[in-house]
Amino acid sequence: MFSRTHFSTLKPQVAGIALAITIGLSGTVAAAQTDATPSPVADISCAVIDVSATPESEASPVSEEMSGEAVTDEATIALLTDVATTCNPDAGADITDVAVTQYGDDLYGIEYQYMHGHQVLRVLEMYSVEHDTWTLRQQKSLSPQSDEDTITLSAKIGGDTGIEVTPGSFNIVGAMRVNILNRDASDLSLAVFSATDDVDVASLAGQNVADLPDTLELQGEMLVPAGTSGDMLFEGLAEGSYVFVALDAGDSVINAAPVTIEPPLDLGL
Asked: What is the pLDDT of residues 98-142, one digit of tens each?
């Protein structure tokens, strides 16, 4: 029942992936544009390389100060989109807001957004290409965007209470953003479940996530490194009961909190 999304929040980045690229939304890093089309795809390696175990001479040359060029060539954008969706099959045909940036002859970045169920995810991926072989060098979550009317919830995980979510109920809107703060000294995850029946949330503490009741259906989950924050975004969630669950690194429930999405507000118009 429980399956993680491919991209967890990396604030800060995952240790060992030394590609500290700072990229804004929709290619805002670019000071120039390029129309050069790279070679066709012969092979794709989707395993992120751990450069902490790579000799320095073989590590990526990308640095924080490196600027890129926004790619406008449609063939290049289509090629990078095909490469990205191969490494992230969950994105599929739902990929939107694609922006491609080139950092030299053999290094490209692609930023895009997609829906996984009701969860909206936005990611940045860096690919190098050599002899027509594309290699994924970095994956990084970015803050997803929505054009829908949005309510923002606060979820604090860890600490003395394990989890605190406010507000605990709200009238349904188009989108729900969850700002997450990890108050612990260890990495924790927040999982959001819809509940098809009444759930005693107090009874969930200590259970392994794989043993949670079948009446809970996973809507999304995000890893938040120790002492950092992140955000999740959902669109199109139905009215009803939800359970927000804080998980430790071993997938055990620290604590859970109920959240209710109420019917639309009746304004009497």
From this structure: 999 999 888 999 999 999 999 999 999 999 998 888 999 988 889
Cα separation of 30 and 34, whole Å? 10
Helix (H) or strand (E) holding 82: helix 74-87
pTM above 0.70, yes or no: yes
Query: 43-70: per-residue pLDDT in tens?
Result: 788 876 654 444 444 445 455 566 899 9
Cβ atoms of 189 and 180 within 8 Å: the answer is: no
SS3 sequence of 130-193: ECCEEEEEEEEEECCCCCCCEEEEEEEEECCCEEEEECCEEECCCEEEEEEEECCCCCEEEEEE
Q: Which domains does the chain have, with CATH numbers?
A: 25-142 (no CATH), 150-262 (2.60.40.420)
